[in-house]
Structure formats: C-alpha cells, structure tokens
Amino acid sequence: MAVPKRKRRQRLPLHFGFATMQATPARRPLPSPPFVSISMSSTATPLPPWPYPRWIAHRGAGKLAPENTLAAFRLGAQHGYRMFECDAKLSADGVPFLMHDATLHRTTNGVQVLGAAASPTGGDHPWSMLSQLDAGGWHSRSHAGEPLPTLENLARYCIANGLFLNIEIKPTPGAEETTGRVVGETTTRLWQGQATPPLLSSFQPEALKGAMSAAPHIPRALLLDTLRDGWADMARQLGCVAIVCNHALWDAALVAQVQGLGMRTLSYTVNDDWAAQRLIALGTDGIITDRVDFFPPATA
Fold first, then answer.
1. Could you give the CA distance from residue 103 to residue 228 in angstroms, rounded to a whole number?
2. Spatial CB neighbours of 70, under 8 Å, sequence gap ≥ 6
3. What's the number of CA atoms in the CB half-sphere (13 Å) around residue 42?
4. Which residues are catalytic?
C-alpha cells in the first residue's frame, strides 16, 4: 500500500551577530552551512555566533603574492576567498600597518632605503619612512614597488568588497598591550556600523588584553603553537570566542574541550588536502591556508 508522504519541516535561517555575544535558549539544532559546527553536549557552554567562512587566505594569497600587501588580498579574492588573515603592528608614531616579521629585512627593501646603520625593526621607524619602502620586489619583479599597507588601507578594501578579516596582532616586542589597544581602537573606528567586525587574534595575551580593554565588543581569539599550561583559563579570562591552533594539535578530544568551553576552533597553516580533510571531519570551524590556488573555498 502507498505510504503517505511526511510533511517536510521548514528550514529556518541562521542569524549571526556580535552585539551582545549572549547565548540563545537551547532549541532543536538547525541545519547549518558546512563551515558552522554547532553540536555540543547538554552541559557545554553554547557556541558563539559565527558569521565567518571556513576558508581563510593566509596573509592575503599565501605565497602567490607578496604577503600582507593589497596585491595579495586582491589575488586571494580573485581565487574566490571571502576571508583573509593579516598581521598588524605599529609604526614608531602609532600607525597600525601590515607586516609579519619584527624586522624589515625579509619582506622590504628597508636596508637599502634606510641604510645599514638604521634599526632593522619596523616598529622603530615612523610611518612617513615605512610608507616609502618596497614590500613587493622581494617576491617578484611583477610586484616591485608594492607598498606596505596600513590597516586602514586594508579595511577600506575589505568593507568595499564585503570581505571578512582575521587581524593577527603582531606587536613589536615590548609593545604588546599598546599594539592591542591601538588595533582595537582602530578596528572599532573603521568597522563602525558594519554587520560583521574582524576577528582579532594573537599569540600574545598582553596584546589581547589591550584589545579587550579598548574594544570589548570586537571578538578575540587566542593563537597557540603548543598547548601551554593554563591556555584554557587564559582564553576565558581574555573573553576569547575562538582558539586558533597549529593544525597538528587538533584531535577529537581537544575539539570537544574547546567547544565545551563555548569557543570556536580554527587552524593554521593548512596546505595539504589530507590535513584539511582531517580538520573538516573533526568539525573545526576555520582553516587558514596559503594554498588559495588549490582549495576552492566556495565548494569545500
């Protein structure tokens, strides 16, 4: 005999927002996009809202363009990426700009422009000097002359194009809290009125402390290269919404522990398919990669 058709339940949309960061009452789990992991035990802290894509382009476009330059972010966007990771530090006169290393040697022509006797530390120089450096010629001739961008330069590009951002606070040694505070203040100003703020992350607790004091409403994440003693308590004290780990550290137990704390789970830097598939199977929320030419973010 014919079996009567069951009425299909209507799918409800997910809503995201960081205005209050408060959990909603427990309810039946909803269908969710592939990049959202919402399973939790009945005793776990509810996970925070998560509007960010799973795939995150490392320093713009990995190694395909000079890292932390607008050329890199444009190239990453051309490959379909909607979220980027960047590194922010302060010039001597307090301008947040993008550069990973503490010194200028690897990714700029600082020695040639400033002279061998000048300090190699980027944060020792005012923005008026740093803005004159070539941050692309080290990578390739086609990128020669590419300047160091300010955080404001990148913010304008991301906001104009509807892109998401993870700002790693990368302070010059000794300027951790100040850098976190200025990045927090700058982020608040630049993203005012935007639906989704950047995610601020750092290996340095003092930098996150500075960001929390200046911009408590901007979400924060603790970066870990090892599971150092007290990391969970530290993340709670800093009000973090996520943990960003070296991808090799994640296993089912650690994912469950972090999700049980009410935090999201992200990984760096994932460039192999087997590693990415392992992290997806574990139910992690974000994958930072150099391989924007290999991983298709729209279909992963």
1. 26
2. 146, 149, 153, 154, 157
3. 0
4. 58, 100
Residue 75's nearest CA partner among 157, 134, 131 is: 157
* pLDDT recorded at residue 37: 37
SS3 90: strand
* Residue type at 47 in one-letter notation: L
Quick check: helix, strand or coil at residue 133? coil
**Cβ-contact 94, 174 below 8 angstroms:** no
Residue with tokens 């402390």: 209
Helices (H) and strands (E) in the chain, counts: 9, 9
Pairing of strands 264-268, 242-246: parallel
Q: What Rg do the C-alpha atoms of the chain give, in angstroms? A: 20
Bridge partners, residue 267, by sequence: 245, 287
What is the reported pTM?
A: 0.85
pLDDT per position as a tens digit, 218-272: 999 999 999 999 999 999 999 999 999 999 999 999 999 999 999 999 999 999 9
Please list the alpha-helical segments (H only) found in 107-225: 110-114, 127-130, 151-160, 176-190, 205-214
CA 278 to chain centre: 20
Domains of the chain: 55-102+148-289 (3.20.20.190)
